[in-house]
# Entry
Amino acid sequence: MKLNPIGLAVPVFFALMLLELWLSRRKGARIYRLNDSIADLTCGMGDQVIGIFFKGLTLAVYTGVYTATGLFDLELDSPWTWVLGMVGVDFFYYCYHRFSHRVHWAWATHVVHHQSEEYNLAVALRQPWFTQLYNWIFYLPLAVLGVPPVVWIASYSINLLYQFWIHTRLIPKLGWLEWVMNTPSHHRVHHGTNPAYIDSNFAGIWIVWDRLFGTFVEEDEEPLYGILDPLRSWNPLWANVGPFLKIAEKARAYESWLDKLKVWWGPPGWTPSGEVHPPFPSPMRGYDATGAPELPAYVVAHLIPVVALMGWILTLDKVLAHPVLLAGAVAVIWTGMGWAGLFEKRGWGVPLELSRLAVIAVSGVLWAVTQPTEVLVFAAVLAGACMASAAWVWSRRAVLVA
# Structure
C-alpha cells in the first residue's frame, strides 16, 4: 500500500507547532493567535483534501508528456537523475512563485498563503486551494527533458516539506547557509509587507535563484507580515474566493474591454495609469475577532478529531473510495466555515456548526448499526460527543452570536 507522505507528516507538523508555541512563550513572545491559526489550518486542510481529486489528473498529464516527448532516457537509479529533478523542481518553483506574485489572477490564488498577519509554522500550512489547477504546468519542461514522474513527484514533495521549517520567527540568521539556502530569515522577508520587501525571495530551497535573477533582499528590519489589503476574516472559503471577486469588481468598473483584461493579467495593483498599492502600514490591519470566551476550548477540543480525520484521509487517499474522500473534503471546508462564523459571531455560525454536529452524530449512529462490533464503542462515543457538543452550542447560541 502506497501511503501519502504529507498525511504521515501531519503529526510531526503539529508536534513542531506545539514546540514552537512552547519556546515562544518561554521567550515571552506571542506569535500564535488561535483564531488566526485555525484559519491557517482550515485553509491548509481544504487545500490537501481538494488536491486529492487533482493529483491523478496532473500526474497523468505529466506522464503523458514524459512518454511522448522525453528527450533523454534518464535512469531512475542514477543519482544525477535525482539531482536534476531536485534542482529542476526548485528552479521551476521559483518561476511559478514569481509568476504568482506578478500576475493578478495568479496572485488571487496565491495570496491566501500571505493573508495571516502572524508568522509561525501554522502559516506554513495555510495553503491556497486553486493554485493546484495550474502550477503543475510550470514543471512540464522536466517531463520534456525526460525526468521520470516518480522523480518529479518525490522532488516536489521534498520541496514543499522543506519550506515548512522556514516559517518561523524563532530561528535567527544561519551564517554561511544564508548564501545558498532559503532560510527563515529570507522567507520572513518574503512574507513582509514592508515596501523594500515586496516581491522578493521567491526561492523554495535554494536562494541562489533570487541572487541570480535580482529578486533577493536581505532581512535588515522586522517584517510586518500579511498583505497590503487585509482579509479581515477567518473564513477559508472567503479567503480563497474573495480575491477573485475583488478583481472582477475592479474589471466591471472599467469601460475599456482591454482594461478589463489587463486588470486580470497585469500585476496586482494595476490601473490604466500605473500600479497603485494600498498604504503601508495598512490602517485595516489588526483583525482579531475571537468570539465568546468559551469558544477557544471548544474549538481546540474539536480540532483534534478533525485533524485526525484529515490525516487518515491524506494517508490513505489512494485506497479510500471517492465518496469517502469527497465527504472528507466537504467536512473539512464545512468545519472551517462554521468555526469562522463562530469566531466572527455571524448569525449563520451556530446553525452551520449545529448542522455539522448533527450530521456527524447521525453518521456515528449509522456506523454503529452497520459495522462490526469492534467499532461500536468508538462510533457511540463519537455520536454522543457530537450530541453533547450540539446541546452546548444550542444552550450558548445567544452568547456565540451576540
User: Anything to note?
Assistant: The mean pLDDT is 92. The chain is about 60% helix and 0% strand.
